[in-house]
Amino acid sequence: MGYEVNSPRIVESIYYECVPVIIADGFVPPLSEILNWDTFSVTVFEKDISRLKEILIAIPMKRYLELQANVKRVQKHFFWNAKPVRYDLFHMILHSIWNSRLNHLQTSSS
Fold first, then answer.
1. From the CA atom positions of the chain, what is the Rg in Å?
2. Considering all CA atoms of the chain, what is the largest pairwise distance in Å, rounded to the nearest integer?
3. CA distances from 98 to 6, 16, 29, 31, 57 (A)
4. Residue 43's closest CA among 57, 31, 33, 29?
5. Three-state secondary structure along the chain?
6. What are the pLDDT digits (tens) for 12-35?
7. How far is CA 20 from the centre of its chain?
8. Which of 51, 58, 65, 85 is 20 to 30 Å from 105 at the Cα level?
């Protein structure tokens, strides 16, 4: 199910070119240090779940189409290929680890 904090539903929605709707306060999306999730997803506070339909209907069509177009642009970053392809999930994970390590080293030396 898609009700746990770490759910494969987000990546599945991107795979099927759907705009992810994230309902989790304080959730840090995967690869958020690299990708700006506000450009291709919608975040709804848990307290607003009773207004979910209202919130989603209120998104202008132009904005929705922008979000969906951006989903298509970032989609390649969530694909796992048998043989790594430039900018696929394998490379994004490596970049994420490198970025985390770099930040850790910078914090440690301060």
1. 16
2. 49
3. 22, 29, 17, 12, 39
4. 29
5. CCCCCCCCHHHHHHHCCCCCEECCCCCCCCCCCCCCHHHCCEECCHHHHHHHHHHHHCCCHHHHHHHHHHHHHHHHHHCCCCCCCCCCHHHHHHHHHHHHHHHHHHHHHC
6. 999 999 999 999 888 889 899 999
7. 7
8. 85
Residue 21, phi then psi, degrees to nearest 5:
-110, 115
HSE-up (13 A, CA, CB side) for residue 99: 11
Angle at 99 between CA 15 and CA 28, to 5 degrees: 50
Report how far residue 21's alpha carbon sits from residue 97's, in angstroms, rounded to the nearest whole number: 26
Residue holding tokens 């307290």?
47
Instruction: Indicate the pTM of the whole model.
Output: 0.83
Comparing CA positions, the residue from 75, 64, 70, 68 lying closest to residue 15 is: 75
